[in-house]
Design brief:
single chain, 272 residues, alpha/beta, UDP-N-acetylmuramoyl-L-alanine:D-glutamate ligase, 9 strands
Amino acid sequence: MSSFTPWTPDDAREYIAVPGADDDKYSRGVLGVITGSTAYPGAAVLGVEAALRTGVGMVRYLGDERPSDFVLRRRPETVTAPGRVQAWLLGSGMDAATRDPATAKRLGDAIAQGLPVVIDAGALDLVGNATGAVIITPHFRELARVTGAETSDIAADPGTWAARAAEELGVTVLLKGHKTYVASPDGARLVASSAPPWLATAGAGDALGGILGAIVATHADAAADSGTLARLAATASVVHGLAAERAGHGGPFTVLDLAENVSPVIAELLSR
């Protein structure tokens, strides 16, 4: 296995953006989100919820009518009109095999803007089209599809496969699991181990995408550097894991419980 450096809560604290007295909703970071689908609207809700609780000034959600309705019911402060953003979160709760022309256009337009982009699940096939800094957030099966490897091989040595994928694809890779491995093309190798086993639950990856998207949007200029992008990704994983631990108190929890604990976790990190 490649050598991975543990990423700790103290490390993560340094990558939490704290707004100043002169900041507004735009300078605090605007995250564009194209996630969810008619079949899986919950993915959009969970990602937007987690992003808003991580500290962006605005989330701009562009999706199908059904997930848009769900998002606005849960988080009415979400903006659903096109406009400027600092980073994108794409693909959670989508299936590339059933992508319709309207969704394809939205994704294509976003990925061509040259902005930092977090690519998950149903947009992983678009990695080669991106013109800005890219981080992908696959689980073992998704990375197997992207690389052509066997899922069992990736599960047996996830760090090595995360590093190999980063080098071959030329993007930063966050490989989800009980331990989250982050690798960048420039050689950054980080591992976050804050996640409890209870985090292996449906929707957890959608929340992680929202947390990561928000952290990238608040560091959009710095995220152009793949090493910095790797550190932002590891920070998101630490926040995600700590929020899960706080939500469950050692037991099970729902992903909305996790999202509701993101803000208190960030406050605790900043007070360390």
